[in-house]
C-alpha cells in the first residue's frame, strides 16, 4: 500500500516544553474553535494528542481531495488516525510575568486546526502562545460546534464554489469571515487578560484563566498558510491590535484590490517555489512597495504542502494523495538558530532567495 505511514514531527528546539489543548468558546457558529499551543511545565509521562482529532476529519479530507469517502476515510483512519503530536496534552501552563507574544494562526483551504502542529509547537517552544483556529466558513475540510443541548454536535462540511457563482465573490466572503474570526480570537485573549470568565465548552478541566497576566497583548501577530495567509493580511486591516502578519505561501486571489492600500502593518511573505503566480506575487509587491518592512522570500525546493505537517509524513501513500513533498528536506530549516534568522529574512541562504522567482505554478 505504498509503505507504512507515520507522522515524524521533529522534536521542538526551543527552551520550553510545549503543551496544547482544544478550546471551544460559545455554543453557536459565531463562537470560536481553536487548538492552543503554549509553553508548559515539564510533566513525566504526559499524554500526546492525536494529530487527526476525530474520525470525521478523515471523511472531510477525503471529500476535499475528491476521493470516495466510503473507502478513503477508513484508509486514512488506518494510515494516520493513530499519529500523535509530540507535545503535552493539556500540560500545565508555564506562567510568564513579562507575557508571551501571541500568534493567531489561520489554516488553509481544506485543512483544520491540527495540520500545522509542527510550526505551531516550534513557535510555542520559543515562548509564543499560538491559537490555531478552525474556521467555520465552510473552508475547513470539516468542523463542528456544540449547541447548548448536552451531548449534541453540529458539523459544518467543506463547501466548494456553488455552480454558477464566481469564485472570487464566494471566496471573498469567506476570507472576511475568517479575518473576523481572527479578530474575535484576539478579543478572547483580551477578555481573559481582563479577568473575564470564559468557559471552555470542550474541556472544562483546562481553565483559560491560567493565561491571565501571561500574554503580552502589545505583541500580537496574525499568521496563516495559503487561504490563511491572505486571511492574516486582511486581519491587519480589520484589527489595529495586530502588529504584523506572517503569510505562508499566501493565496492572494480572494482579497479585493481596494483593500491593499489599507494594510497598515508589515507582512512577511514566505513563499514556496511551486505555487505562486505572477499575479499573486504582484499583489504582494503592492504591499512591499508601501511598507519597507514588508518582505517577500521564497524557499527553493518546496511545494505548497511543505509548510504543513504533511511534509513530515513518511511512506508514499499520503504523499501520492496530497502531493506533500518537495525536493527540500523538511527538517533542513530547523537547523537554523531561532535568533539568527536575519539572513533568512533577507533571502540569503542555500535554500532561500529574495522576492519570488517565477516558475510553473500549481494554481
Element order, helices and strands? EEEHHEEHEEEHEHEEHEEHHE
Helical proportion, percent range: 25-40%
Biggest sheet features: 10 strands, mixed
Indicate the low-confidence ranges by residue numbers: none
Which shape, going by the Cα principal axes? globular
Structural class comes to alpha/beta
N/C terminus separation: 29 Å
Content of β-strand: 15-25%
The side-by-side strand order for the widest beta sheet comes to 4-2-3-6-5-9-10-11-12-14
Number of strands: 14
What would you report as the Rg, rounded to the nearest angstrom? 19 Å
Count of helical segments? 8
> What is the averaged pLDDT score?
89
How would you characterize this protein structure?
The chain has helices spanning 55-64, 69-80, 117-125, 167-193, 227-238, 278-288, 317-322, 342-345; strands at residues 6-7, 18-25, 32-39, 88-89, 100-106, 129-133, 142-145, 154-157, 215-225, 244-248, 267-272, 295-299, 313-314, 352-354. It is of the alpha/beta class and 363 residues long. The strands form three sheets. It has a ten-stranded mixed beta sheet with strand order 4-2-3-6-5-9-10-11-12-14. The protein has a two-stranded antiparallel ribbon with strand order 1-13. The two termini are 29 Å apart.
